[in-house]
Specification:
Blueprint (H helix, E strand, L loop, with lengths): L1 E8 L7 E8 L5 E6 L8 H7 L9 E2 L1 H13 L5 E4 L2 H11 L16 E4 L4 H10 L10 H15 L3
Parallel strand pairs: 1-5, 3-4, 5-6
Antiparallel strand pairs: 1-2, 2-3
Helix pairs in contact: 4-5
GO molecular function, one term: nucleic acid binding
InterPro entries: RNaseH-like_sf, RNaseH_sf
């Protein structure tokens, strides 16, 4: 099953995860999580654009809980293939799966996890955002952006 990934991060190096989202092709499987606590020294752009979009509440998770929930989510999907269009998204998602830099939770890492990189998604994404102006106000929310990537990929596939 294809899962479309988007992450938001707090620093210019794309190493400080803020939020992570995965959405399946059929939109029946959705994962969304935000770090709690959030990175303490975000760029001004992240402070003014990304942080105000965050859901918080049940979406806000400690690193250990985020790892556990993501592993449980991936285990619930048959032969997951994570589709992404930016290398930092994959690296951050793998970082969460691996348990950040802390001791690893007990849940096993999915053995059948596959990755699919989609190159040159700029134009399909621009077209999708252009045809969905109502979503522009939430652009840079990881779940909204994961849905956008999903839709842009489906349009490329003629679906």
């Amino acid at each position: 099953m294809d899962l479309f990934l988007d992450c938001e991060w707090a620093d210019v190096l794309a190493s400080e995860l803020v939020s992570l989202a995965l959405v399946s092709t059929d939109r029946q499987h959705v994962f969304y999580a935000e770090r709690d606590p959030l990175p303490v020294d975000p760029t001004p752009w992240v402070t003014t654009v990304v942080y105000p979009l965050l859901d918080r509440g049940p979406s806000a998770m400690s690193d250990a809980l985020m790892t556990r929930r993501l592993r449980e989510f991936l285990a619930s999907v048959e032969r997951p293939r994570i589709c992404y269009d930016f290398g930092a998204d994959r690296a951050l998602c793998q970082y969460v799966i691996n348990g950040f830099q802390t001791s690893k939770p007990d849940e096993p890492v999915p053995a059948d996890l596959r990755w699919q990189f989609f190159e040159d998604m700029r134009e399909p994404m621009v077209r999708w955002w252009g045809s969905h102006p109502e979503e522009q106000v939430r652009r840079h929310h990881a779940l909204v952006d994961a849905h956008a990537l999903r839709s842009a990929c489906l349009s490329l596939w003629g679906i």
